[in-house]
Amino acid sequence: MPARSQAHAYPFNDPALPAEKRIDNLLSLMTIDEKVGCLGTRTGVPRLGVPNIGSSEGIHGVVQRDKSQGGYHGSAITTTQFPQPPGMGESWDPDLVREAAGVEGYEARFITQTPKYDRQILMLWGPQADLARDPRWGRSEEVYGEDPFFNGTMVTAFVKGLQGDDPKYWQAASLLKHFLANSNENLRTKSSSNFDQRLFWEYYSVPFRMGFLDGGAKAVMASYNSWNGTPMAINPILKSVVEDQWGVDVLSSDGGAVKLLVTDHKRFPTQKEAVVACLKAGINQFLDTYQDETKAALKDGSITEKEIDELLGRKFQIAIKLGLLDPPATVPFAAIKDSPEPWNTAKDKEVSQKMALESVVLLKNANSFLPLKKDSIKSIAVIGPLADSVHWDWYGGTPPYAITPLRGIKEAVGPSVKVNYAADETAQAAVKAAEASDVAVVVVGNDPTCGPDMPHDWHNTPDGGGTLPCTVPSDGREGRDRQVITLDQEQLVRQVYAVNPKTVVILISSFPFAINWSQENVPAILHMAHSSQDEGAALAKVLFGDYNPGGRLVTTWPKSTDQLPPMMDYNIRDGRTYMYFKGEPLYPFGYGLSYTSFQYSNLKTSSAEIAKDGTVTVSVDVTNTGSMAGDEVVQLYVKHLKSKVERPREELKGFQRVSIQPNEKKTVTIPLEATDLSYWDEKLGRFQVEAEPVSLMVGDSSADIKLDAKLQIR
Description:
This protein is α/β, with parallel strands linked by helices. About 25% of the residues lie in helices and about 20% in strands. The strands form six sheets. The protein has a six-stranded mixed beta sheet with strand order 9-14-13-12-10-11, sandwiched between helices. A five-stranded parallel beta sheet has the order 1-2-3-5-8. It has a five-stranded mixed beta sheet with strand order 16-24-23-18-19, with no helix packed on it. α14 links the parallel β10 and β11. α1 packs across α12, α14 (about 405-415) packs across α18 and α15 (about 430-435) runs parallel beside α16 (about 490-500). The N and C termini lie far apart (about 60 Å).
């Protein structure tokens, strides 16, 4: 052993050695059974003192549920729970998303390194980098939105937050899901997402590419579906693009995906052949039966130990980044343990509260109906099936507390205002409560678990769904797409409004609803995503004007499914997203109101021209012309004026959320790189920046452009 390594048990424990040499040493000491074992989710080698990386779901909070809720443990561990990813996205605040992910990464370290928990969860499965191309998709609740640049910005922020700020080590590792173009649930185990190379490079892969190249993520999970006929678990792009071009180290199969290559995709006659094909494609983390098959393949020569070593070599790079092979004294994150529980600290609660507040979207506010004035009302009705609950979802954990809308409103108004609560229409309870109150608040939305027993509803059905059908057709979840986007509970809104026109609708939902009647009739509507532990407190602060809402929508909300292409049409140019939507939506992408007003002026670029490899700065002055402090979300869209290929009508290329006091003016600056204006040239197989004029458009939604200017690309 070299002299410098004498203080370490093995050379792989020596941080001074190059990573490749350390990994080579580790692999040389491992038995073949240990190597095969590390191709699962457990990467520990107890005999050699190598800790396990471990894993946990974590798209909006670390998930450590108990078995009754589909968890893997007898007891739950509480962790900070943020709004579902669409809600985090609706903040339009990547810095805050990074903070939230930092909370998650710290809590994962704490649980891993605190002996009383004894759970290794240093690789968090998140963020979800797919795109919400259709509001009927059952897993829309898991992604940030429909725009590739927007989603990629949020994915990058989340990855960086998990990893932490240390220049050498990661706090936690990120595994992106699900590569690629996984946005249908019905028939997902055998369906193919079909589209051309341009859409691959310009739309579907963008958030993944940004998460890897800009965020530094090194792990990804392949999706169940095929792309253009080839199942993703064995698709050649895993090696040629994800591994070779984007430098990803862990390529994971999804749960049961290998078996589906035999049963549903019908690509191989046996599980063994499917496992070998996955190994050859670069899969080095299996969530499926694989060990006996791998050992049999090693025995008959279908796979070699050298190939296994190459697969594990990439995987152990992440163990090194996490500091698991180094002396704990040299790893700053190794000290995170014992006490206090971070989810009970003021720091984590503060981030949760801020995220909840920033995620609230004001959809309608006729005649400045909101905010309500506490000193001018003596009674308030709080009505609806979601009024006294905070719903968990399949990829959410157990919060240390959960403030319902009813509780939040009661605490906000105090004992001087009577609160009349009614859960539903039973015995005319909702109508009676509304009649007896100065104002009515109706809390409606979807059930994110799609029924009372989600952990046990995983059964294939004749119609191709991976779970039992949802009780309500407008609900959706993993394994089941939505049948409609109308809201059954709008009938409750109608009844309340009929007896009390002073009605506020709070829509708590995982995805868009076609609430056309409410938009036409009810004076005020708020939207928030599910599962925030501070849900009720945030909504109450917005209702009574203690906080001015500044959230913005992250998808286009249609008026009807008649405005949408068929579900399996993955060519977004046929009418999907704000970039190609046909007709007038109920609410456009980027939409959201405020209790104050803003004026835009003085749009400028740092240069009238930009080179094909250059950068320009776009600046605009924004003035708060109202009487209340508030947040504006400045959005920069680009339109190509003389492109040789078909382009979207507009594309988001920058945004910034900014807080402005009354009568205050702030200059907002947004950088724009020429490479972000490129298109994928299918003949040349690379991105091309055209010499052309483009229109730079600044506004507060995709449908409300305030100012525009031209920029010439040279």
